[in-house]
Design brief:
By secondary structure, this protein is mainly alpha-helical. The chain has nine helices and three strands. The longest helix has about 35 residues.
Length: about 300
């Protein structure tokens, strides 16, 4: 059973696409700003940060494709929907963040090892500061929308914005220290190493979450207990057992058994199962599909079910 909330689905999709398109436009602007500031301001760190921002463009493209395909309605070839496409998109974003984090760490360690010096100007400091403010604003805008529409891919992209902001923080600190204290020319590389650890921690968390979903890992016990208790509250549902759930992108898919009085008609049992489905779909956030199986409430049934 699918809830009658297509208008909400369409609004969520539009919001996710809109925030991602805004992010893509901002990333294009920042790539140009950082390249200009790095070349004119003589900052190798800012030029490297511009290259980092290019990865954000790829991330935006992946999320756009994931949202566009992942939120399509179920069809004959995808009877459970296309939600896993969005999960794959978030996995790609997480892996991309992982590569970016490793790259920043490698380049920073290499700069420390080779004692690579730089002589940035005030323009590089201004460009790095502007990047931080813009990308942090994009993080909050994107993560708020991602949480509201329950999109792992959009939330992953929000963390990509923040990783860019954090790398710009490293650039700003390093460039500012070198600008005011030229003898401390390794400061930007040291700061970049610290930021890379933050990026790697976020990327591994996103990648692991997406991997668990693709592996059909069950949600936490608290959610399963909430599903069981919500279904149990429906009149006529004497017992709820064999509750199974899995995630598919932003959606939750559930199967469960409903025990009813053995003396009622098939039609009455069917009505109870539909009441359970309807109640769950409207009470459990993100629930998209419910499959119920009716069991008669008899002692013989319970004993036989234990033997099978």
């Amino acid at each position: 059973m699918t809830p009658p909330e297509k208008h909400i689905h369409d609004a969520d999709l539009a919001a996710g696409l809109r925030v991602t398109w805004v992010g893509l436009a901002v990333n294009l602007l920042l790539v140009g700003l950082k390249l200009w500031g790095g070349i004119i301001g003589r900052s190798q760190a800012l030029i490297a940060d511009a290259v980092h921002s290019v990865s954000d463009l790829f991330s935006d493209a992946v999320v756009l494709l994931g949202l566009r395909w992942g939120r399509k309605e179920a069809d004959e070839d995808h009877p459970f929907g296309h939600g896993r496409i969005e999960t794959i998109a978030s996995l790609i974003v997480g892996l991309l963040l992982l590569v970016v984090g490793i790259g920043i760490a490698y380049n920073a360690v290499l700069s420390i090892y080779t004692h690579q010096a730089s002589s940035p100007t005030l323009l590089a400091i201004v460009a790095a500061a502007a990047s931080i403010l813009i990308k942090e604003a994009m993080y909050w805008y994107t993560v708020i929308v991602g949480r509201r529409i329950n999109s792992m891919a959009v939330i992953a992209n929000a963390w990509h914005h923040r990783s860019d902001a954090m790398s710009s923080v490293a650039v700003l600190i390093g460039v500012a220290i070198v600008y005011f204290k030229p003898a401390w020319y390794l400061a930007d590389a040291i700061a970049a190493v610290l930021v890379s650890f933050f990026i790697l921690r976020v990327s591994t968390g996103l990648t692991w979450s997406a991997f668990k979903e693709l592996a059909d890992t069950a949600p936490d016990r608290a959610l399963l207990r909430e599903i069981r208790e919500t279904a149990q509250s429906v009149t006529g549902a004497r017992e709820i057992h064999d509750v199974m759930a899995r995630r598919s992108g932003p959606y939750l898919l559930v199967e469960l058994h409903v025990v009813v009085d053995k003396s009622i008609t098939v039609e009455q049992g069917h009505a109870i199962s539909k009441d359970v489905e309807h109640h769950l779909l409207h009470e459990i956030k993100g629930l998209r599909r419910v499959i119920t199986h009716i069991d008669p409430d008899t002692k013989d049934h319970r004993e036989s079910s234990k033997d099978t």
